Amino acid sequence: MSNKNTTPLISKTAFSCPHCSAYTTQHWYQLVADSYSEDHRTPTIPSYEQVEEFAKDNDIDKETKEGLVSWGNKILSGKPFFESNKKPLYGNPIIQNCNISKCYNCKEIAVWVYEEIVYPNTKVNITPNNDLPEHIQQLFEEAREIVGASPKGAAALLRLCVQHLCKELGETGKKIDKDIASLVSKGLNPLVQQALDIVRVVGNEAVHPGEIDFKDNKEIALKLFGLVNLICDQMITHPKQVKELYGDLPKDKLEGIEQRNAKVLE
What we know:
By secondary structure, the protein is of the alpha+beta class.
């Protein structure tokens, strides 16, 4: 299984498309402002009836009619799209902090403001470990729902996930520093503790679970998603899998292992 992070980020030229989910090349476009004329000072949004009238109007030539109907249907779909017959705009101001990514696979576009996708509305492409307790999975899913609009809020929820997970693993759930140190002594990879320090779950800059930290951004939130799953994987999933494999051994093999262990302890 690949460890490649396929989550959409504004710093990437390839990620999982928020429309078709394919991991593929994304082409980026900047936006240019074109002011409406005095004759049409507001955006033009046709009605369904108007589009039908275009389609039935025999006074319009076929090519123009097809273009009008296609344009009207695209507007009414509510989806952003490129108007290919629009002439290039020279000297018009570029809209900063607004960008478009277009998927190589499905040709659909995503609209970004700052470093977040505002269209389409989508969850981050990281699912919770199935072995996480249900109430922690619910917090994880809530963080997935809001990470695009509020990475700070998502990070706060994910720190809460770590706190609850520590408690589920037999720790106090009160001082995460001590809880994680205890889990390391029980088999959690020490590198996880260092990673938690980087994202301010433990260490001198630790943020209290559930509290908003204004230093948080989407990159930190994405790391927290991965760390919650990693702790669960090492402390719940792997031991469960080993136990299941051990339990599937023939009875005589199990007895032999128990006898061997008993001799070692003598």
